[in-house]
Amino acid sequence: MAPRVVLLPGDGIGPEITAPTLDVLKAAGADLEYEEHVFGGASIDAHGTALTDDTLSACKRADAVLLAAVGGPKWDTTDPDKPRPEQGLLGLRKGLGLFANLRPVKPLPALYDASPLKRDLIEGTDMIVIRELTGGIYFGAKTRTADRASDDCVYTRDEIERIARVAFNTAKSRVTSVDKANVLETSRLWREVVREVHENEFPNIELEHLLVDNAAMKLIAAPRHFEVILTENMFGDILSDEAAMLTGSIGMLPSASLGGDGPGLFEPVHGSAPDIAGTGAANPLAMFLSAALMLRHGLGMESQAASVESAVEQALAEGLRTHDLGGTATTSEATQAVLKHL
Fold this sequence. Notes:
Helices cover about 40% and strands about 20% of the residues. The chain is α/β, with parallel strands linked by helices. The chain folds into two domains: about 1-100 and about 255-340, Isopropylmalate Dehydrogenase; about 115-245, Isopropylmalate Dehydrogenase, CATH 3.40.718. A ten-stranded mixed beta sheet has the order 2-1-3-12-11-4-5-10-8-9, sandwiched between helices. α6 (about 155-170) crosses α7 (about 185-200) and α11 crosses α12. The longest helix is centred in the middle third of the chain and has 17 residues, at about 185-200. The model has no long low-confidence stretch (mean pLDDT about 95).
């Protein structure tokens, strides 16, 4: 039976980049079954909530979830009792138990000159940032008075072990674990547990430890040094955005969020771009690359994933440039340029 994928086109340019992605997946030889559900603002309009129980149940039953984009000014509110599109995303992560965020960063040769860094610095960079998604300072207890505030940063051995395994399983040769073990107790536990997982389960992979401030400098000074960066929630949030800028355009970046036994969630890093929705100008390439991540990490279809990535790279090498990359290509023209190579 063909793997089942739940599609969540969402808001803004979401539906415009979802439809051509199905053409690309078909051309790459991925035989999949699709089930589409409203999500985010579109779901608020239809059902009064960003994520319905039905949609969450469908996602849990699926083999993978492919999400385009959520949000827009139409649903912006400061009223705590009103639903927001982003609540759907947090609900989905929680409901599917997604604890690992994977963000690959590989500047493509055709776009080297779009990077703020010099070509000879970024040439050959090929890394993936693996961020723990459900623990740390973002989820700890919070207190606030007029003169004092606190955010509790908590990590457990189990949380660190499972994200470390994702990193070591992803790596071909080296994992760089990033922490602040010279100052933080949570980082000292992090370093200790990562070291144990390495010694007991993955001794053939090289492990190095870097303090987060040093890692931030090295990402700019020597990005080629990194293969897999493993880090906790807040450090990962910051470093993955820093690494993203090596490529020159956030409109090119895919991401994957993975959990235990359930399906993964695959989505472009960019937002719903309401300002260009309906104009046909959206760049669909990050969505295509997110679908490639889905094939690789969610469905075990490595050769189909590689063919999608190769087709995107070849289209760019031949001169494809959407508006965000300084060109004039429409969503449709970008899709045709990629399909030509499949």
